[in-house]
């Protein structure tokens, strides 16, 4: 029995319940209880962390809600360029909440320890650098940069300031992904060779046609500040502000927004630093609403052999008009099985398949094209060389792992961030990891718009 096989069986016996149906693992329950105890821990006034959120859109409100599930965290400020969102923040978090339309007002306050950056992508890097240089811990939504050229500068700022910095791809904190990583490293699916990962959607909101407020205007939206760092300036357009994901000038399209979720999880499980070649194609197939990014995009991303993993290829796809409906898939394929991570990082399953030791004979084979004498001689020889056991494909039970009901990886991701702020421990997704996940996704955009293969140096984090 191989060493990898022994490791796999040991993991099955001690950590995960084997079943053909979905079961909650005991290990998942235990980790969830630890998280709940941490949330209930008594916090002294000196342990309190005061935060502000910059960008109170969908992710801003959701991130704030997740952040406040960690004990001892207090929201003291909010920033947004639309006055209606600042008014909403006061409705939700109290009239005493400090609000502003200028992020510099936030990072210059002495009573703020950490900021959540949930703005449009084009502001992530600049605000993060300014905040770190102002002495603030930073939780930055993904992708951490709008352009690949910004990555090394942001990493340098974090290293120089020594401020806590974490990127917001919550899958790397998921208890299901942690267990999936353990199972992968134990040899559960053999030697990895390919990965299929996709997001399918089939509705307007999923395609980023978000609801716009009736009072939107140049009086309620700080349009000039929003586009002040863009190379090309446009007259006020509410769609560009409230649906910025659809525009290259402010967002990063489906690659930067959704591929990065997929690659973050893949890199976490495989311990990969990134690919070496990237090629993508796409179309604007359905949502022709003025957007200048594709709504259907596919990429082939090749990972070379490293000390962390063998060579493998990844196919990435986003389809905003899929007849399959809403479905998220990540399938890690190995020589002896498939790990299927679906949904938002709360479960996975493993299906093992292993070839029989004997190579097989007959069936869809050239055997029947030979003379009867040759067929008999070949069969006699085959039966002498291989036992019945060697000719039989091994069978394995399926493995299913599911996080406890109500589990939320975003809450854990913020708890990990605030642990780092309090105790100066290592974050789970630092600037280097975040950039190594984001850059190949942004390179997918470059490949699509420039119609070429992008060669990437993952170790040194630069285009070759």
UniProtKB/TrEMBL annotation:
Domain Gfo/Idh/MocA-like oxidoreductase N-terminal: 49-168
Protein name per the record: Gfo/Idh/MocA family oxidoreductase
MF term (GO), any: nucleotide binding
Entries under Gene3D superfamilies matching the protein: Dihydrodipicolinate Reductase, domain 2 (3.30.360.10), NAD(P)-binding Rossmann-like Domain (3.40.50.720)
InterPro entries, sorted: Gfo/Idh/MocA-like_OxRdtase_N, Gfo/Idh/MocA_oxidrdct_glycsds, NAD(P)-bd_dom_sf
The entry's keywords: Oxidoreductase
Keyword Nucleotide-binding: no
SUPFAM superfamilies: Glyceraldehyde-3-phosphate dehydrogenase-like, C-terminal domain, NAD(P)-binding Rossmann-fold domains
Superkingdom classification of source: Bacteria
Species in which this protein is naturally found: Mucilaginibacter gilvus
């Amino acid at each position: 029995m191989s060493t990898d096989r022994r490791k796999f069986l040991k993991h099955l016996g001690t950590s995960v319940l084997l079943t053909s149906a979905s079961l909650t693992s005991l290990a998942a329950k235990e980790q969830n209880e630890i998280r709940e105890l941490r949330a209930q821990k008594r916090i002294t006034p000196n342990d309190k962390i005061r935060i502000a959120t910059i960008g109170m859109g969908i992710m801003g409100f959701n991130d704030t809600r997740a952040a406040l599930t960690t004990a001892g965290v207090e929201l003291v400020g909010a920033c947004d360029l639309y006055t209606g969102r600042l008014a909403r923040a006061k409705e939700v978090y109290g009239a005493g909440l400090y609000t502003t339309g200028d992020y510099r007002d936030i990072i210059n306050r002495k009573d703020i320890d950490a900021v959540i950056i949930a703005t449009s992508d084009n502001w992530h890097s600049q605000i993060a650098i300014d905040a770190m240089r102002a002495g603030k811990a930073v939780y930055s939504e993904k992708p951490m940069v709008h352009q690949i050229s910004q990555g090394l500068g942001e990493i340098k700022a974090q290293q120089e300031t020594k401020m806590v910095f974490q990127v917001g791809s919550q899958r790397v904190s998921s208890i299901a992904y942690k267990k999936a990583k353990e199972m992968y490293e134990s040899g559960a699916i053999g030697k990895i060779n390919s990965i299929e990962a996709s997001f399918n959607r089939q509705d307007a909101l999923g395609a980023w046609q978000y609801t716009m407020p009736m009072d939107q205007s140049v009086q309620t939206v700080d349009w000039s500040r929003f586009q002040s760092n863009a190379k090309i300036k446009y007259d006020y357009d509410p769609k560009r502000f409230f649906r910025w994901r659809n525009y290259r000038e402010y967002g990063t399209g489906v690659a930067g927004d959704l591929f990065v979720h997929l690659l973050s999880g893949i890199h976490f499980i495989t311990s990969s630093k990134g690919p070496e070649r990237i090629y993508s194609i796409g179309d604007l197939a359905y949502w022709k609403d003025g957007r200048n990014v594709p709504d259907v995009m596919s990429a082939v991303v090749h990972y070379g052999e490293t000390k962390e993993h063998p060579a493998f290829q990844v196919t990435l796809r986003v389809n905003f008009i899929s007849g399959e409906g809403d479905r998220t898939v990540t399938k890690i394929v190995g020589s002896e099985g498939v790990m299927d991570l679906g949904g938002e990082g709360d479960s996975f399953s493993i299906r093992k398949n292993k070839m029989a030791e004997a190579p097989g004979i007959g069936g869809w084979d050239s055997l029947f094209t030979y003379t009867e004498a040759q067929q008999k001689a070949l069969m006699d020889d085959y039966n002498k060389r291989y036992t019945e056991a060697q000719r039989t494909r091994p069978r394995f039970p399926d493995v299913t792992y599911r996080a406890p009901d109500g589990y939320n990886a975003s809450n854990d991701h913020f708890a990990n961030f605030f642990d780092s702020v309090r105790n100066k421990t290592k974050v789970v997704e630092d600037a280097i990891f975040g950039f190594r996940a984001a850059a190949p996704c942004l390179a997918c955009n470059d490949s699509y718009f420039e119609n070429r293969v992008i060669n990437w140096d993952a170790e040194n984090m630069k285009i070759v």
